[in-house]
Write a structure and sequence with these properties.
The chain is an alpha/beta fold. It has 21 helices and 19 strands. The protein has a five-stranded antiparallel β-sheet, with helices on both faces. Strands 7-6-10-9-8 form a five-stranded antiparallel β-sheet. A five-stranded parallel β-sheet has the order 12-13-16-11-17. A hairpin with a 4-residue loop joins strand 1 and strand 2. Helix 12 packs across helix 14 (424-430). The two termini are 26 Å apart.
Length: 583
């Protein structure tokens, strides 16, 4: 958890300090972003500080710093306001949590009167700052614990409602405290306010029995009897957990639900160990409510995965809206995403327009090429993720939305954050569940599966009956690195279908077509063995590097990396040493 997560509390503390000391207060996080401020500093909240010279010195020394003559001290020499600083004095202190600096707090004087108050009792001020820093750290820890408890409670409720059995929590005095949705359905109840006498009698019987483990019961539930299997376990001295399973339906429901969800991901063609691992992880991620960031090269199928995640989630009955952030002109992207009110700008629709976020309400919005999102719009996307609300162009009031965001990129967002072209806070909000889709060249066994699939697809589309390719064509397809991944392979096969005439395509009949296409794609068929080994080494090194990045992001171990690559653990470490890859 970060200071940004409790920003409103931090701002309240800053304003309270300013009111007591009659000094300006500034609080920044470890990334030198102003989390709170008073006076002029309040305008630039949630913006990166310029210079950061004092805070950097505080971070390096881990000690408070006193600036008596701003603009004229040694540390000020590299500042653009050297010799002409508006400040009259400053005292800055680190904020520690678990012996780590998590931010900074500064008291700033802008007048001689404020300067006199700031330096009249430096020892007292430093002690005061120390206590305030402890307060902020304590507030952050409290927020973290509360957030964790809330998440655990939500997770528990979610898990209980996902269970393929009814669950009731009942006191030893026969009062039902809680029942999940499945239990209410099984017992044909609308709620727990008034229980039918038949259900009350059954609960009394269950509570009075000493031990119940998968025992059969018949309950009179209108309009029929319900046969259930019951288990009772004590929670504490006062409460019991009772689980019930409908004998007639529970097995069928459980099997069908899992089958349907897995079926969604079977439409993603490929059975390599790497792709199967990603499918399995994506299936698990689909059950979550968190934001997902799909990463992978162009053409790897990020939108296909996004659709599968949506259809395997609880939102599958609502809309899936895809937006290519790189394909829409910057001046139109805001109104496309958030909509606009009537008369918002020249040429606007007279009745206004609903944006993509509102259209996706209740469902999922897929923001493809999120790395192309202009910085100005990134702030509005962040607000959606933080506040679950949008504001139309020309609008004056926020609109609540319930949308799951799946973003995708083929760019290194972490590097863009370092370069200042992508907001750090938005990156962390998007990267809650990162999923890395492996390139086609790292899973060559999927190439032939995809070839067969597209041959069948284009046979129908072109009304042909092509059976396949000969061995030499197959070898060329296998050797090609497919920089455009699945999309390029599909386009290549479609290209061949436009020109081949025979039912079984041979190298002699199609070599000119193939060489023309692949050479146009900047690929030269390598004939020399040494050159081929060199190229394959580069591909292998890149694949291992990306796999290690993936397991680090997902907190997996090297055994999982070896499994994803389809090689043994010892082989993986040998190749890491060979290519001098940092782990």
């Amino acid at each position: 958890m970060y200071l940004l997560d409790i920003q409103s509390d931090v701002q309240s503390i800053a304003e309270a300090i300013a009111a007591v000391l009659d000094l300006e207060v500034e609080i920044a996080d470890i990334n030198y972003m102003r989390i709170a401020g008073t006076g002029e500093g309040k305008i630039n909240i949630l913006k990166k500080l310029e210079g950061n010279l004092v805070y950097k010195e505080v971070y390096e020394t881990k000690k408070s710093m006193i600036i008596r003559n701003p603009g004229f001290e040694k540390i000020c020499k590299s500042c653009g306001f050297y010799g002409n600083c508006m400040e009259a004095g400053e005292i800055s202190a680190p904020i520690f949590m678990n012996n780590q600096i998590i931010g900074f707090i500064g008291l700033i004087a802008f007048s001689e009167e404020q300067r006199e108050r700031l330096f009249i009792d430096i020892e007292g001020i430093l002690l005061f700052l120390s206590k305030l820093a402890d307060l902020l750290a304590s507030k952050l820890e409290q927020g973290r614990i509360l957030e964790e408890m809330k998440n655990q409670a939500e997770k528990l409720d979610h898990v209980i409602n996902l269970m393929d059995q009814g669950v009731l929590i009942v006191t030893k005095y026969f009062k039902v405290l809680q029942a999940n949705e499945h239990a209410l359905r099984t017992l044909n109840l609308n709620g727990l306010d008034e229980l039918p006498s038949s259900v009350e009698k059954w609960i009394r019987r269950v509570i009075k029995l000493d031990k119940i483990e998968n025992e059969p019961f018949i309950i009179q539930t209108r309009p029929r009897e319900t046969k259930v299997i019951v288990t009772k376990r004590p929670i504490n001295n006062e409460e019991f957990l009772i689980s019930i399973q409908d004998v007639d339906t529970i097995q069928t429901i459980a099997e069908n639900v899992q089958l349907e969800k897995r079926k969604v991901f079977r439409s993603i063609i490929g059975s390599s160990s790497q792709l199967e691992a990603v499918k399995e992880f994506a299936l698990r991620a689909a059950q979550s409510k968190s934001t997902i960031l799909l990463q992978g090269e162009s053409g790897t199928g990020k939108e296909v995965f996004a659709k599968a995640i949506h259809h395997a989630s609880e939102r599958n009955r609502d809309s899936f809206i895809a937006v290519n952030c790189g394909a829409i002109p910057e001046n139109l992207l805001e109104s496309e995403l958030f909509g606009y009110e009537k008369g918002a700008f020249t040429g606007a629709n007279k009745i206004g327009k609903v944006g993509k976020f509102e259209t996706a309400n209740g469902g999922t919005i897929f923001l493809d090429e999120i790395g192309e999102m202009p910085l100005a719009l990134q702030v509005k996307i962040l607000r959606v993720l933080q506040e679950n609300e949008i504001e139309r162009v020309g609008g004056t009031s926020p609109i609540k939305v319930n949308v799951r965001v799946i973003a995708a990129t083929n760019r290194a967002l972490d590097k863009m954050v370092e370069e200042g072209t992508f907001r750090e806070d938005l990156y962390y909000r998007l990267n809650v569940i990162p999923i890395l889709i492996p390139p086609l060249r790292s899973r060559p066994e999927d190439i032939f599966t995809l070839c067969d699939y597209y041959i069948n697809e284009f046979n129908v589309l072109f009304n042909k009956s092509i059976k396949g390719f000969d061995e030499k064509i197959t070898q060329k397809i296998y050797e090609y690195p497919w920089p455009g991944n699945v999309r390029e392979l599909k386009n290549f096969i479609e290209y061949l279908f436009n020109f081949v005439r025979e039912d079984f395509v041979t190298w002699d009949s199609a070599k000119d077509l193939i060489n023309r296409k692949l050479n146009n794609e900047s690929f030269v068929i390598i004939k020399e063995k040494q050159q081929m080994v060199f190229q394959l080494d580069l591909i292998e090194k890149e694949t291992i590097q990306k796999t290690i990045e993936y397991i680090k992001m997902n907190q997996l171990n090297m055994d999982e990396a070896a499994k994803l690559l389809g090689i043994g653990r010892a082989t993986l470490f040998r190749k890491i040493k060979k290519y001098q890859i940092d782990i």
